[in-house]
Structure formats: structure tokens, C-alpha cells
Amino acid sequence: MSRWDRSQDQYELARERTVEAKRRTHLANERTYAAWTRTALTLVGLGVAIAGYFHMVGSGRAEVFVALGLAFVVGGALMAMLATYAYRRTYRDIEKANFDNPAGLPLLLGVIPIVLGLLALLLIVIR
Q1: Could you tell me the pTM of the whole model?
Q2: Would you say 44 and 76 are in contact if contact means Cβ atoms under 8 Å apart?
Q3: pLDDT per position as a tens digit, 30-42
Q4: How many CB atoms lie within 10 A of CB 75?
């Protein structure tokens, strides 16, 4: 085997590894998107359940809990929109080999359920 053949083999191996690494990175991006989407759908479902239950029971403070349910639905919808934006942006960055790590969007996605959870806890405690 000539020196040229070995360098061609090494080049081909490096190219295949690069393609595989890119494929794995895209799959990781899809898994992350799926996780954020599941969380968003959970928030929406929980919001509908909270609002429906307290509206049906008709307790004295039903409107407060219906508003809390609405906040969960809106927060879930916002999270789904932000997750879709983050997925598309990451997809584009992977294709361009741009690996900057913007901290703002993941932080915002994490803050949404935290704020809604604290709000729910506050309303449950003062009920």
C-alpha cells in the first residue's frame, strides 16, 4: 500500500467520523427538543386540569385558581415556542459548525416552570 493510499484512507475515515459526529449532535438536539416539548405539554395539561377542577368545584377563590391554570397554559405554550426556536437555531448552528453556547435561552426555558411552580405553591399555601 502506497503512502498516497494510506493518506486517502485516513482522509476518508476522518470524513466518516465527522459525518457521524454531526449526526449524533443532531440527534442530541432532537432529544433535547423532545424533552422541552414534553415539559411544555405537561404544563399545558396541568393548567387545564387546575382551571377545570377549581372551576367545576366552584370554591370561593375559583377565579384565582382558574387564573393560575391559565398561567400554566400560557407558560407551557411559551415554552413550546421557545423550545422550537431553540431547536431550529441549534440545527442551523450545527450545520454551520458554530458552537457558541448562548446561555439566555436555556435559562429562560428553565425559569418558566420554576416561576409557575412557585406561584402554584404560593396560592396553595395562602388558600
Answers
A1: 0.78
A2: yes
A3: 999 999 999 999 9
A4: 22
